[in-house]
Amino acid sequence: MKQNKPIRRLAVIWGMLLLCVILVQGNVHAKGVSDYGTLQVSGTHLVSSKTGEPVMLRGVSTHGINWDVGYPYISKEAFQTLRDRYAVNVVRLAMYTTEYYGYCDKAGAAESQSVVQTTLKQRIDTGVKAATELGMYVIIDWHVLNDQNPQKYQDQAKAFFKEMSEKYAGQNNVLYEICNEPNGGTSWDDIRSYAQQIIPTIRSNDPDAVVIVGTPTWSQDVDVAADKPLEYNNILYAFHFYAATHKDSYREKVKTAISKGLPVFVSEFGVSEASGNGNLDTQEAKQWLDLLDANGIGYVAWSLSNKAETASLLKAGTSKTSGWTKKDLSAAGQWILSQYPVRSGEGTTSMLSKVTGLKVQRKSAGKMKVQFSSVSGADGYQVVYSTNKNFRKAKKKILHNKKKILSGLRSGKVYYVKVRAFQKQNGARTYGAYSGAKKIRVK
Ligand code: IDC
């Protein structure tokens, strides 16, 4: 009987540790549809039609929604995890046109082509609804890949986008990506003539819709597109990179395109090699994201999947379909999804631990001393104090070390105090989780 106590104590300690992990994960929240509303392309940027401010989209692409490594993650729970823990504000639904269960060529699938199409459209609808309920943007991606030239299935693309734009015309959070990666010698002229069929179809239903157009050579020749852009407004041109393969010379292509005034959008990237597998190169990826952030170019990571390939954001074979914490993420997932909160500069980040060991001491009239344990990696601390238990009308002070005497307090009042650490990234502060609150009556 006696052994029970230590075991119970151990269980309590484990429980508390688990809670700490959950709290440290914090709640991050990039700006979304309720902040920005309808998106518009202005110059080389996306801007909010509501506030006029530049819009930065950071997102995640599904794997092919035709496969069981892709569609199980189309849910409100999954998207909410991405939004709340990892500062994702856009999700891309990648619908392959060919390969197994493809929209135009179902390859080996048992169902008829029309059943396949109905199922894929239902999956898209689930994704659009989930994103909408969560105030996130959503990209409907016509995932041209093995079919190489989007003109191959142009009639089907037209019918598909007609139907989608009719269905989602009333929404301000849906973007249409009309050809993922033209390749195999498809020229920019081919893509232009395809786009000239599809864009008016979409716009006749949804005049404001932002349309993303792929560029030649697996959506990399944005420099070529920049010499002869399309004659429509609200167009983004796709550029895709995989950091372990595509380096400086590809960054030059992006720089050339934007210097010519082309609005570029990275609707797909990986930290892996272009195969979606092989090595990861986070140093190159960091250079990429720095370049994109500096130019206000949004980016979407490939892919939200547990498939055993290094581009997958989830650990190979993980069975969780939402609620992922760091341990459920692959190396690529951990790197990418820890970048987003920091780069969006909103809310807390899971990179910093919670402040512990907070002590408050009464000093002479109107003063108190606060001290706490330092947090590794912190650039400073924010102490928040108030006479209100819920920290209404709280005062905030930035500290550069772990103790400070606060003065100017109201004598005889009870104060509540809490502290969090912060890091500075790109000029913005990102915070770790708050310490527990302490209370004290001031002399
Ligand atoms: C890859 C998937 C892989 C799949 C392959 C073929 O990661 O599991 O077998 O497609 O369908 C792209 C494409 C994207 C690729 C990805 C990685 O848009 O569909 O996904 N990639 O190769 N362009 C460059 C890389």
In short:
By secondary structure, this protein is α/β, with parallel strands linked by helices. It has eleven helices and 18 strands.
Question: What do you see in this structure?
Answer:
The structure is a single chain. The two termini are 49 Å apart. Helix content is 31%, strand content 22%. It has an eight-stranded parallel β-barrel with strand order 3-4-5-6-7-8-9-10, surrounded by six helices. Strands 13, 14, 16, 17 and 18 form a five-stranded antiparallel β-sheet that branches. The chain has a three-stranded antiparallel β-sheet with strand order 11-12-15, with no helix packed on it. It is elongated and about 80 Å long. With 443 residues, the chain is an alpha/beta fold. It contains eleven helices and 18 strands. It folds into two domains: 12-348, Alpha-Beta Barrel (TIM Barrel); 351-441, Immunoglobulin-like. The protein has helices spanning 4-25, 33-36, 76-86, 113-133, 154-168, 188-205, 216-219, 222-226, 248-259, 282-294, 331-344; strands at 39-42, 45-48, 58-62, 90-96, 137-143, 174-177, 211-213, 235-242, 264-270, 299-304, 359-362, 368-371, 380-386, 395-399, 403-406, 414-425, 428-431, 438-441. Ligand IDC is lined by residues 99, 145, 180-181, 218, 240, 242, 268, 274-276, 302, 307, 309, 311.
Q: Could you give me the name of the CATH homologous superfamily of the largest domain?
A: Glycosidases
Number of separate strands: 18
Fill in the CATH topology of the largest domain: TIM Barrel
Poorly predicted spans: 20-25
Structural class: alpha/beta
3D shape: elongated
In helices, the fraction of residues equals 25-40%
How many domains? The number is 2
Strand order of the largest sheet: 3-4-5-6-7-8-9-10
Corresponding CATH architecture of the largest domain: Alpha-Beta Barrel
